[in-house]
Amino acid sequence: MPILPYYLPMLPKLPLHLTFLPFDGFSNMVLASAIEPLRAARDLSARRLFSWQVCSLDGGPVMSSSGLSLAIDLPLVRVGATDALILVSGYGMRDHLRRDSAQSVLKKARGLPLIGGFDTGAWLLGRMGLLAGRRSTIHWMERDAMAEAFPEVNVVSDPYVVDGNVVTCGGAQSVLSWSLDLISAHSGEALRFDVANMFGRVMGRSSDPVEWQLPSRMTNRALPLSLQRAVRAMRETAERPLALSRIAERAALSLRSMNRLFHAHLGVSSGEYYRHIRLSHARALGQETDLSLEEIASRTGYSGASTLARAYRQVYGETVRESIIRNNVA
């Protein structure tokens, strides 16, 4: 069973609620690249950091570019309080948003903290005048066409662009980068790293099997290989915890250097990160097995159920079982 890494919880914040508005021809990969990291962040943290809903102009299903029909939560007109309205379009964006529907979108977008256009969604934002005088990006196949169609917009080749309260992204990889950065800004770099790792990793140049690195789309935030070795050693020993000095040895680091790297790149001490790996593993065992708390404690390096319970409550403010039940309900 995979061991779920964890992070030091940040100060309490209200969940960030996002509304996605896909149009016929949207890319499944783009929408998934936005939502799945947020779902992973919520699962890993056992906290409802993010919530989302999917709407359409008329409340009916939307057809993706691959012919899959997406069920919709509600029509745009029924969207209430939300922190973001993000338009997701792919093929056919020139045919979307007639005058009346554009006015409906503008009405909902007015005053929101975040407005977005993903894939070719920037074209729709440009048509509504929301990008005038702003920097923006779009899927690379439409970059030149957008610059020609909207001369008042500074179209750039960046993967994603945030200008004021407007964010625009290119393809799925760009949306994934944005989603990961949103997680970092909202809940910390350690959680961002853990979520990114859930979405794939590749071998590094070294033949050493422990010297892995994140895919190229994430190399701007990749950890030093020595720190990656330390993180991997912690995950591999969650059920049989080692002394931090031994973890440092496996990472070819001194204990002091390892702590410094954890603070610099993940914002927590090595001991804090290791503890949260073990607690997250305890949560996974509680959720996916019928083991008793005593057995879970034994398999996560705690001396007994009461010791595990105290550590878990100290960090999360609830018991293992309460956390599982609340997350399942959410």
What report would you give on this structure?
This protein is 45% helix and 15% strand. The chain has 330 residues and is an alpha/beta fold. It folds into 2 domains: 16-187, 3-Layer(aba) Sandwich (Rossmann fold), CATH 3.40.50.880; 206-330, Homeodomain-like (Arc Repressor Mutant, subunit A, Orthogonal Bundle). The strands form 4 sheets. Strands 5-2-1-6-7-11-10 form a 7-stranded mixed beta sheet. Strands 3-4 form a two-stranded antiparallel sheet. Helix 5 (172-187) packs antiparallel against helix 6 and helix 11 (293-299) packs across helix 12.
List keywords for this structure.
single chain; 330 residues; alpha/beta; Rossmann fold; Arc Repressor Mutant, subunit A; 2 domains; seven-stranded mixed β-sheet; two-stranded antiparallel sheet; elongated; disordered N terminus
Q: What is shown here, in short?
A:
The protein is of the alpha/beta class and 330 residues long. The protein has 13 helices and 13 strands. The chain has two domains: 16-187, Rossmann fold (3-Layer(aba) Sandwich); 206-330, Arc Repressor Mutant, subunit A (Orthogonal Bundle), CATH 1.10.10.60.
CATH structural fold name of the largest domain: Rossmann fold
User: Tally of extended strands?
Assistant: 13
Considering the protein shown, what is the CATH homologous superfamily of the largest domain? Class I glutamine amidotransferase (GATase) domain
Structural class of the secondary elements? alpha/beta
- Biggest sheet, in brief? 7 strands, mixed
Please state the second-level CATH architecture of the largest domain. Answer: 3-Layer(aba) Sandwich
Average predicted confidence as pLDDT: 84
Order of strands across the main sheet: 5-2-1-6-7-11-10
Outline: elongated
Top-tier CATH class of the largest domain: Alpha Beta
Q: Which value, in Å, is the CA radius of gyration?
A: 22 Å
- In whole angstroms, the N-to-C terminal distance is 23 Å
Strand content: 5-15%
Chain oligomer state: single chain
Helix proportion range:
40-55%
| Count of the separate structural domains | 2
Q: What is the helix/strand order?
A: EHEEEEEHEHEHEEEHHEEHHHHHHH
- Stretches with pLDDT under 50, minimum 5 residues: 1-12, 201-221
Number of helices: 13
